[in-house]
Amino acid sequence: MKATRKLIWFILAILALSLFLGYWFFISRNSATPQETDIKVVEVEEVGIKDIQQTIRLIGTIKPKNSTVLIAKTAGILDSLLPAGQVVKKGTLIAKIDNNEIERSYLLSESVEKLARDQYERALLLHKSGHLSKSIVEEKKRLWIEAQKKMSEAKIEFEKIRFQAPFDGTIGIFKAREGAQVQEGDPIVSFYDPASLMVEFGIPASVMTFIHEGQPVRIQRTSYTLTKVQKMIDEETHMSPAYVDFSCENCVIGAGIDVDLTVQRKEKVIVIPFEAVFLRNGKTFVYCVKENKAGLTPVNLGMREKEDVEITSGLQKGDILIARGQARLHPDIAVKIYHQATASHLPGQK
């Protein structure tokens, strides 16, 4: 019985010793090559000097430079004479308000003025030949002047019921349908010149201090310059109205369009990929390769443009910047520079 117990304790001691030796061997093996397992492969690029510009994308609206809306100056029934979209010359009658009384009054005043003028001219000839006194001639002249005044008044009322093209252009959308009763002040029809276009957009108040007329603008991959900017901020939108002279054959007036406005531009500054920058304790850092290790480097940022950012301090031309993979790194960790030729031999590559 005692021999059996001794045998059991002996076997348990052998098992415990085996487990201890196995654990020690495993720890020793993994700690024997710490440098190999801690080496990180990184992508780098050499810090260089180049230009950078800050661009903001805004939404503009295509509009004609010359446009207007014809407004009713008196009440009546609308009569549309030409369709929307028709190109017409300046002075062409587009629509009118039916008002027979005003039309008759104008035609009658024209006839009276013409008759008074003819009578005055005839009286003047008779006076020169001695067949008519000067007082009669003066009376005929007075009647003619009075007829001219009445005709002018009638013409003003007559023009109120007519809608004529103010310049060469295209008839736009009718605001009131044909046959509708319109009142004084009602919009009747829009009118514009499609040959001369502009893009209207708003510039945020936050960048207005950098904006001036003539600044570069890109619309539909074409370069333009800022034609006009109002140095006034709209209280509701907090934007400042701006305009660019624009040319486009197939554009739709009133449609929205992207506007890329260059806010600032700097030449010959240090520029790096923005993804190389990270935050730590509220400050900005990058990693650079220094003696085959990742060196934590504080930097100050300047202008940003899409995927690039200006570095105002912290880096110099020629520094080897770790461009990607910062999340796997810590200061002074050993690193190996990634090369395209050896990519197939890197961990995780097939």
TrEMBL record:
User: What keywords are annotated for this sequence in UniProt?
Assistant: Membrane, Transmembrane, Transmembrane helix
Q: Which residues cross the membrane?
A: 7-26
What SUPFAM superfamilies does its record include? HlyD-like secretion proteins
InterPro entries given in the database record = RND_pump_MFP, YknX-like_C
Pfam family example for this protein? YknX_C
Using the record's annotation, list all stretches that form the YknX-like C-terminal permuted SH3-like domain: 269-330
Q: Mind listing the GO molecular function terms for this protein? A: efflux transmembrane transporter activity
Q: Does the keyword Disulfide bond apply?
A: no
Output the superkingdom of the source species.
Bacteria
Sorted alphabetically, the Gene Ontology cellular component annotations on this record are: efflux pump complex
UniProt record similarity statement: Belongs to the membrane fusion protein (MFP) (TC 8.A.1) family.
Q: What is this protein called?
A: Multidrug resistance protein MdtA
